[in-house]
Amino acid sequence: MKHRAAISRMGLAPKRSSQAPTDTRVHITLSHLRGFAPAARAISLLSRHPATSVLQGRHRSRIRGRGLDFEELRGYLPGDDVRSIDWKVTARARTPYVRVYTEERDRPTLIVVDQRMSMFFGTVRNTKSVTAAECAAIAAHRVVAQGDRIGGIVFGDQEIEELRPKRGQAALTRFLSAVVAGNQRLSATAPTVAPMALNDVLTAVARLARRDHLVIVLSDFDAADEATQFHLGAIAQHNDVVLGVVSDPTSTQLPEQGTVVGTDGNKQAELDIGEAMVRTGVLSVATHRIEQIKSWQTRMRLSVLPLSTAEETLPQVVRLLGGAQR
Q: What is the Cα–Cα distance from 164 to 14, expressed in whole angstroms?
């Protein structure tokens, strides 16, 4: 009996069939993330995007040479392959012109998934941690389907797991399993600890994705600062970077009156949001963060996808990437 009790406490005992199913709005499961595989075909992470996509014109490898995707005509330069000369245009212009093509390269993808306690929050549909996990799964399925390598970094307040990009279903399963493990560790009764710094995670990203990667960061960007901008800028110099900014409606709107109770796990505070100064102070924190991240989009070579916990994740991703949901 003692041995059986010990196994049960360790979580090794088989689960009883009478156990209530997991609420995937709070905690996700591996089968739930696998279920996004067919729908992920509705999006594209390749170079050709619809005009409505936030990635339109991005993620394109400019290789001068013979390829499948015609890009432009330009004047001949010393060193150009003579086979690329367009002789008809050259005859009309009486000066050499070459045809420039864009070729697709194998592009590893690194998906960074924030599963810190700041993400374990939601007031409408999902928690932020679930929205980030579902978006990560949709992107991962698409990456594998198009034949590219998939890897990632999943981090919580104390744990971080790094997966170097590899090709195939086994790599996809390892990544999704890491996301599930990180998500399942989140609990309202978890002890209060200092959260892992996002800048430390970005240092790991720079080590794994030195160049020619697609880097997708899914987070609420809690505690992002000027150093975060520096790290992202350095990564974006040699990689394509997409920021999935996950937010809850309470970051931009609060009830007109009433009280809000907040806690750090040890101390509790009650705020009267009916007072103008209190409302302004609470909302300004989130508003400043969102505006700061939007400014990065114009300063650096990256894209920003605003993701909300108030909607289903898949329709948001399809809409943002300009696809048509199937």
A: 32
Domains of the chain: 30-55+106-320 (3.40.50.410), 69-102 (no CATH)
Closest to 321 measured CA to CA, from 97, 50, 3: 50
The reported pTM is 0.74
- The pairing of strands 160-166 and 150-155 is antiparallel
**Which residue in this structure is represented by tokens 């050259």?**
90
Query: pLDDT of 266-315, one tens digit each?
Result: 555 555 555 656 555 555 666 677 788 888 888 887 889 999 999 999 99
CA dist 305 → 60, 220, 244, 297 (Å): 19, 11, 5, 10
170-203 b/e (C-beta count within 10 Å ≥ 16 → b): ebbebbbebbbebbebbeeeeeeeebbebbebbe
Got the DSSP string for 250-262? GGT---SSSEEEE
